[in-house]
């Protein structure tokens, strides 16, 4: 998805041939290429600016050592900074609390919340041997509750039965008692999304957050959303104490810049990536692997 960056960087390697040291002057053209590639990949402008400034700071004055060519040295710096931009270290899901560990899923409609709730339940059951309860608070779309129920039965997770007429907060507290009495380790709560940021939605999810005190509040965002993802992320990060991000549809034909911008805007690590529609299509997010993928 960052094909441009890869091809532009291979051009960069050539322009720097024969230089013994990286200077402000000789990396200027290379940085221009990186800047263009990031903008074309839909990374937000303020993020690009800061990124370029950091690469410059790290690169200028760098002695080119050993068998490394100057171009490779600069690409190395770009690589490190892309990893840093995506959060540096891999961030694990946090479940260390008195059970049930509540995971609250937030995001716009269509981002992949319900699907990711099911996938995450499956991942936790298989990889962490957890007993998981899936709960839907999306009373506005009965189809969404049904969809989560179906996912639960496909993966063999428990599903909290919602009574007709129950309000989101009632569902949440009833589900919490249910999870306690049935000894669930983890309770994943899917919430109602809207097509765009909406005050009523934010208020509702804020109230659910206060009531449930989740150990993880994960912002689910579609990697294909491009620049819109930045505004959405900003609104959610302001309204909720997010703990992490799930970036979905990375398998799609996205320009991927959203991945870099969203982290920058929320200040929270990407914990999982959706890489396929099927229920096995959720993976822990590795910034270093993603950086290698971006750079080809
Ligand atoms: P919600 O409205 O946020 O709950 O979104 P859904 O979970 O219903 O997902 C919306 C659509 O995106 C569905 O068709 C999902 O199958 C699809 N989807 C979600 N995550 C992924 C992913 O990682 N890759 C692909 N290809 N499709 C996904």
TrEMBL record:
Q: Where in the cell is it found?
A: Cytoplasm
UniProt keywords (A-Z) are: Coiled coil, Cytoplasm, GTP-binding, Hydrolase, Nucleotide-binding, Ribonucleoprotein, RNA-binding, Signal recognition particle
Domain SRP54-type proteins GTP-binding intervals: 100-296
Listed GO biological process terms: SRP-dependent cotranslational protein targeting to membrane
Keyword ATP-binding assigned to the entry: answer is: no
Task: Report whether Hydrolase shows up as a keyword of the record.
Answer: yes
Q: Where is the Signal recognition particle SRP54 helical bundle domain?
A: 1-86
Catalytic activity entry? GTP + H2O = GDP + phosphate + H(+)
Q: Where is the signal peptide?
A: none
MF-aspect GO terms: 7S RNA binding; GTP binding; GTPase activity
Q: What is its main location?
A: cytoplasm
Q: Where does GTP bind?
A: 107-114, 190-194, 248-251
Q: Name one GO cellular component term.
A: signal recognition particle
Q: Which residues form the AAA+ ATPase domain?
A: 99-252
Question: At the top level of its lineage, which domain of life is listed?
Answer: Bacteria
Coiled-coil residue windows: 13-40
Subunit relationships = Part of the signal recognition particle protein translocation system, which is composed of SRP and FtsY. SRP is a ribonucleoprotein composed of Ffh and a 4.5S RNA molecule.
UniProt family annotation: Belongs to the GTP-binding SRP family. SRP54 subfamily.
Functionally, this protein is described as follows: Involved in targeting and insertion of nascent membrane proteins into the cytoplasmic membrane. Binds to the hydrophobic signal sequence of the ribosome-nascent chain (RNC) as it emerges from the ribosomes. The SRP-RNC complex is then targeted to the cytoplasmic membrane where it interacts with the SRP receptor FtsY. Interaction with FtsY leads to the transfer of the RNC complex to the Sec translocase for insertion into the membrane, the hydrolysis of GTP by both Ffh and FtsY, and the dissociation of the SRP-FtsY complex into the individual components.
Which comment does the entry carry about domains? Answer: Composed of three domains: the N-terminal N domain, which is responsible for interactions with the ribosome, the central G domain, which binds GTP, and the C-terminal M domain, which binds the RNA and the signal sequence of the RNC.
Query: Can you name this protein?
Result: Signal recognition particle protein
Q: Gene name on record?
A: ffh
Part of the intact protein present = 1 to 296 of 449
């Amino acid at each position: 998805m960052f094909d441009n960056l890869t091809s532009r960087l291979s051009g960069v390697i050539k322009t720097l041939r024969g230089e013994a040291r990286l200077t402000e002057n000789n990396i200027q053209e290379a940085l221009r290429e990186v800047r263009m590639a990031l903008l074309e990949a839909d990374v937000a402008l303020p993020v690009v600016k800061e990124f370029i400034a950091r690469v410059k700071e790290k690169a200028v004055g760098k002695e080119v050592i050993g068998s490394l060519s100057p171009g490779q040295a600069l690409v190395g710096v770009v690589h490190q900074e892309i990893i840093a931009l995506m959060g540096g270290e891999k961030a694990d899901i946090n479940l260390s609390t008195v059970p049930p560990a509540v995971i609250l899923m937030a995001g716009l409609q269509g981002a992949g919340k319900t699907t990711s709730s099911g996938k995450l339940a499956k991942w936790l059951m298989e990889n962490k041997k957890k007993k998981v309860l899936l709960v839907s608070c999306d009373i506005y779309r009965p189809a969404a509750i049904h969809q989560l129920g179906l996912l639960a039965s496909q993966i063999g997770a428990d599903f909290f039965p919602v009574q007709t007429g129950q309000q989101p907060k009632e569902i949440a507290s009833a589900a919490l008692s249910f999870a306690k009495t049935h000894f669930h380790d983890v309770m994943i709560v899917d919430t109602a999304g809207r097509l765009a940021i909406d005050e009523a939605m934010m208020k509702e999810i804020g109230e659910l957050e206060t009531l449930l005190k989740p150990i993880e509040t994960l912002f689910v965002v579609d990697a294909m959303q491009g620049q819109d993802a930045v505004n959405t992320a900003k609104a959610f990060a302001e309204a909720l104490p997010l703990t992490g991000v799930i970036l979905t549809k990375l398998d799609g034909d996205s320009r991927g810049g959203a991945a870099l911008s969203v982290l920058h805007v929320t200040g929270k690590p990407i914990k999982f990536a959706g890489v396929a529609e099927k229920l096995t299509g959720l993976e822990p997010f590795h910034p270093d692997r993603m950086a290698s993928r971006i750079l080809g």
